[in-house]
Amino acid sequence: MTERTLSGIGVTPLSGVGTVVWYRPDADLPEPPAPEDVDEDAELARFEDARAAAEDELEAERERTAERVGEEEAAVFDAHVQFLNDPQITDGVTDAIEGGLPAEHAVQETFSEFVEQFENMGGRMGERADDLRDVRDRLVRVLSDGERVDLSSLPEGSVVVAERLTPSDTAQLDPERVAGFVTVTGGRTSHAAIFARSLALPAIVGVGEELQSVEDGAEVVVDGESGDLVVDPTDERKEAAAAAADVDVRHESVETADGVDIEVAANIGTLADLGPAVDRGADGVGLFRTEFLFLDRESPPDEDEQYEAYVEALESFDGGRVVVRTLDIGGDKPVPYLDLPDEENPFLGERGIRRSLGPDADLFETQVRALLRAAASADGANLSVMLPLVSTVEELRAGRERFESVAADLDADGVANELPEFGIMVETPAAAFMADQFAPHVDFFSIGTNDLAQYVMAAERGNERVSELGDYRQPAVLRAIDATVSAAEGEDCWVGMCGEMAGDPDLTELLVGLGLDELSMSAVTVPQVKAAVTETDTADARELAERVLQADTKAEVAEILTLEL
């Protein structure tokens, strides 16, 4: 057969070779009986029983996912429980049953209306449609006594191909058996894409209807970096994909070809991520997201619980630096026990350091106490702390003063503590523009390219309609990164990057050329980035960066990088 290629959106820098297994879970319900033949009370009771059973399933699934994948990924099932109990949805189902529909048909009809509403919103809200489908399908299955397809026991070497994969579907996939997955729909921020990165699975989403032409049992190569699905690949193509997948894990630190040390660290969203980060050779933690300690609970963690979490992270790495980001609540991270405002645009509202210096000052002080104590622990010399979403010198000074004030209080109480290395996230245009004023007051900058790109380009990062604008390869974003690095020159201030851009091995040479000292990413890409660092010559990298910074368009940037890479 002749090799052919279908293109989609690659969501992991991994390749896999395997055999297509089509997953088509949707089953059409039979025609409903006449309304007069429907026992309304019995159907309402069936619906309530199904809701209770579905909630039990979700709680069990959440627990399994938290243990196997991570707390942050498991939180999606909390949203599913909310949908399951949403009054608008339950009232809609009740009305449909009272209108003469059996429970499963009422669920199908009501949820489909909300799915359509969410899809029409686009962006992240559009992707929530998959969550609704997940809840709908679960309820229909329970009501119709259907059996769930077991994706956890597929034959080894399977490539799962589907219209879409819901969170419940993706959480079942076993990386030991599945060589990758490909979907007709989806984007980089979909739950399927997020799970793929956490599970280290080669994956492509958003291929489109052309994917339907790929037959069950076909041999394919899944290139999760380029987004290419190669059907009926040649032996040479399969060998190349296998070689690309076989990247050595380096547990030692790496340097460029001409001897410049580059720290390659991992982003951590839960304590369960520490083991995989160590296994993949991360030098340390470049972004320890502390939000998981505060989410999915009825009250905030106390000082001791936080202290133990920070010490566990420090102990996981033998002398490796652990950079902890203080609480970044707000935006898309609601916390039930906090009085968070209902804002028109929460990403431009009260979040990050704005809350820590304002309504969450007490929470912030408790967190700072735990961090200062952790800095005085056996491994605490390697602790660094950074503030999120800093936009003004006043915020920076106030944040630093809070650390010094809490340290003085601990000293007065006779509690062992140390001031850790102190830095800020650079994720707003203001921080990039003011970096020269910030640099004398910090030990480091960490550039968060996900937020920096969306704020610089005024393009919400989850909105597929403006995804081309919100790309970190846009000249304006690259110049903001360059301005930040330049501002640190001559100061005792190192510069790291903890956004998605840092984990793209095709951009490692450029980032070295721009002057980054540290790169932090999802653990899955650490080996590839370390390999890319060792192949980079800094003089060539600087020349590449100079050329890229002269580009006027994203297309020109891509052309220069393609020529070099």
UniProtKB/TrEMBL annotation:
Q: What is its main location?
A: cytoplasm
Q: Which PROSITE patterns match?
A: PEP_ENZYMES_2 (PS00742)
The source's domain of life comes to Archaea
SUPFAM superfamilies, per the entry: Enzyme I of the PEP:sugar phosphotransferase system HPr-binding (sub)domain (SSF47831), Phosphoenolpyruvate/pyruvate domain (SSF51621), Phosphohistidine domain (SSF52009)
Reactions performed catalytically: L-histidyl-[protein] + phosphoenolpyruvate = N(pros)-phospho-L-histidyl-[protein] + pyruvate
Positions with a binding annotation for Mg(2+):
427, 451
Q: What is its EC number?
A: 2.7.3.9
The record's InterPro entries line, in alphabetical order, gives:
PEP-util_enz_mobile_dom (IPR008279), PEP-utilizing_PTS_enzyme (IPR050499), PEP_util_C (IPR000121), PEP_util_CS (IPR023151), Phosphohistidine_dom_sf (IPR036637), PTS_EI (IPR024692), PTS_EI-like (IPR006318), PTS_EIN (IPR008731)
Protein name as annotated: Phosphoenolpyruvate-protein phosphotransferase
Tell me which species this is from. Haloferax sulfurifontis ATCC BAA-897
